[in-house]
Amino acid sequence: MSNPHVETVTTSADKAKLGGAVLLLVGALVAFYALAAQGPVAQWAALLVLLAGAVAAFFTSESGKSLIAYGRDSLREVRKVVWPTPKEARQMTGYVFAFVVVMALFLWLTDKTLEWVLYDLILGWKR
């Protein structure tokens, strides 16, 4: 990551931007339901315009800028990952399935052995 030490300083302008984004979001929902009589075009237009305003207000705040920086850093890290080839992925999947089958058999055998020891040998219950 590019910024390991993060200091959070919230200014009143930043709080105002976040508050405006919340108000625009609430306004978008209110406008959508309030404009039901006007028809779906007016409803969706008001909703989309106010939501776009809320997103724009959020991304101009420090929190939005931090989110964008985090996304860029994440993409940079994903590009560094060495992904397995399809052959390697199939092999590892096969190993996992084989291990699951072996463990299932082991647990079944352990369960049946304990059942036989407890019920047949110790308690003498014959079914």
TrEMBL record:
Name of the protein: Protein translocase subunit SecE
Superkingdom of the organism of origin: Bacteria
Species of provenance: Roseateles koreensis
Assembly information from the UniProt record: Component of the Sec protein translocase complex. Heterotrimer consisting of SecY, SecE and SecG subunits. The heterotrimers can form oligomers, although 1 heterotrimer is thought to be able to translocate proteins. Interacts with the ribosome. Interacts with SecDF, and other proteins may be involved. Interacts with SecA.
Residues annotated as signal peptide: none
Function description: Essential subunit of the Sec protein translocation channel SecYEG. Clamps together the 2 halves of SecY. May contact the channel plug during translocation.
Record-linked InterPro entries: SecE_bac (IPR005807), SecE_sf (IPR038379), Translocase_SecE/Sec61-g (IPR001901)
Transmembrane spans: 18-35, 41-59, 92-110
Location within or outside the cell: Membrane
Family: Belongs to the SecE/SEC61-gamma family.
Keywords from the UniProt entry: Cell membrane, Membrane, Protein transport, Translocation, Transmembrane, Transmembrane helix, Transport
PANTHER family referenced in this protein's UniProt entry, alphabetically: PROTEIN TRANSLOCASE SUBUNIT SECE
Gene3D superfamilies: Preprotein translocase secy subunit
